[in-house]
Design brief:
This protein is of the alpha/beta class. The protein has 2 domains: 3-102 and 355-360, Enolase-like, domain 1, CATH 3.30.390.10; 107-349, Alpha-Beta Barrel (TIM Barrel). The protein contains 13 helices and 14 strands. It has helices spanning 41-50, 63-70, 80-101, 105-108, 131-143, 163-180, 196-206, 223-230, 246-250, 252-255, 271-283, 296-308, 355-360; strands at 3-11, 18-25, 30-35, 116-121, 148-151, 185-189, 213-215, 237-239, 260-261, 287-288, 315-317, 330-331, 340-342, 352-353. The strands form 4 sheets. A 6-stranded parallel β-sheet has the order 5-6-7-8-9-10, covered by helices on one side. Strands 1-2-3 form a 3-stranded antiparallel β-sheet. It has a 3-stranded mixed β-sheet with strand order 11-4-13, covered by helices on one side. The model has no long low-confidence stretch (mean pLDDT 97).
Length: 389
């Protein structure tokens, strides 16, 4: 069954756009992919025009060859833009394959290993960086049934914090912990901010509350710094959202510097490549908690993957607490109930997009005629966490 055509649409939010790819097969079957890439939405869409020859006219089932066409056959070393474009097409192809087979995608990838997947909330701390505000916001997350939540309390910190900001950040963490108690686990996001010595100092300050992990404590490409942090803390370390291929994950595992990897399906080539990365992680007893900043398609597709993994840990979710309109881009939305996602149903991803809604909520263009794509400016803005640029 060959691919006949494709088109893209973009749903805007104040801080990240969601790009949708609609893939059409020669028999009329439609499949959906989704991605988010900060500040490069326009670039990915233009790239997909460049690689039309790799998409149209090819059999939708040939996922391995799709990867080869986007990477080896174009000779250059594939990075964030290429792997995001590939992921959009790959995800839409799997949706089509599931619909052609009349099966949910997870059944085509080995079947389920569980009946529920735990979720953790992100994007909930859109308040001023004061302990009482963070505490109240955390209570609202817990009241919604979440037993896990992630946040970055470090403002626009970079490499190290001055004493005032260090103490303020620790106070925010402790205020959230005191507000939700021992039965709600905290995931501390560092966004690759810190030099190793500062990450270690922070970790020592919060070890007593037993966080689920510290995430990206150092620059993602600096494995030596990551090793130094791992040698000086008992807190699990998570990383991987800014690694875009299996090759970039390869050196992490034998160094024993990571406990949880966080590949993002929309930026590492799609569901099959992410499953391969997860399988390698399993041989090192490393767990998988995919990065998920997406909407209905990314969340549902990543759920299909998670249900197949023996080493799956937990899945990130934004859309209960920020930009809730993205839930209206399709149906049925995979809601979190009592802190858990349920097993998807229906062929393919099991959802249909509302293309009219997406088109009505496009982000518009900048003065230069490209897609408006604001990003977060988290190394400049002290209260970037409000996500309201």
């Amino acid at each position: 069954m060959k691919i006949k055509d494709y088109r893209t649409l973009v749903l805007g939010t104040p801080w990240r756009n969601l790009t949708y790819l609609v893939l059409e097969l020669e028999d009329g079957t439609i499949g959906y992919g989704e991605s988010r890439i900060l500040s490069k939405t326009h670039t990915v869409i233009e790239f997909l025009k460049d690689v039309r020859r790799h998409i149209v006219g090819h059999d939708v089932h040939d996922i391995e060859d799709l990867y080869r066409r986007f990477t080896l056959l174009d000779f250059g070393s594939a990075g964030e833009v290429v792997m995001t474009g590939l992921a959009l097409v790959e995800m839409a192809s799997w949706d089509c394959i599931g619909k052609l087979a009349n099966q949910p995608v997870y059944k085509l990838l080995g079947g389920k290993t569980r009946d529920e997947v735990p979720a953790y909330a992100n994007g909930w701390y859109k308040v001023s960086r004061e302990p009482e505000y963070f505490a109240e916001a955390a209570k609202a997350v817990q009241a919604k049934g979440y037993r896990n939540m992630k946040f970055d309390p470090f403002g626009n910190g970079n490499l190290e914090l001055d004493r005032k900001e260090f103490n303020r950040s620790i106070d925010l963490i402790m205020a959230v912990h005191d507000a939700v108690g021992e039965n709600c686990q905290l995931h501390i996001e560092m966004h690759g901010r810190f030099a190793a010595h500062q990450a270690i100092e922070i970790a020592k300050e919060i070890e007593s509350i037993h966080p689920a992990w510290i995430e990206e404590p150092c620059r993602p490409e600096d494995l030596g710094a990551l090793r130094k942090v791992a040698q000086h803390t008992s807190i699990p370390i998570a990383t991987g959202e800014r690694l875009y291929s299996a090759n970039q994950f390869r050196d992490l595992f034998p160094m024993r510097v990571v406990d949880v990897i966080q590949p993002d399906m929309t930026q590492c080539g799609g569901i099959l490549e992410q499953k391969k990365i997860a399988a390698t992680a399993e041989t090192y007893n490393v767990m998988v908690a995919p990065h998920n900043v997406g909407g209905i398609i990314t969340t549902m597709a990543t759920l299909h993957l998670m249900f197949t993994l023996r080493n799956g840990k937990i899945l990130e979710h934004f859309n209960d607490f920020t930009d809730e309109h993205v839930k209206q881009a399709g149906s049925p939305y995979p809601e979190v109930v009592d802190g858990l996602f349920q097993l998807p149903e229906g062929p393919g991803w099991g959802v249909e997009l509302d293309l009219d809604f997406i088109e009505k909520h496009s982000p518009g263009l900048t003065h230069a005629g490209v897609i408006a794509d604001p990003g977060l400016d988290m190394f400049k803005k002290g209260e970037w966490n409000k996500r309201d640029t």
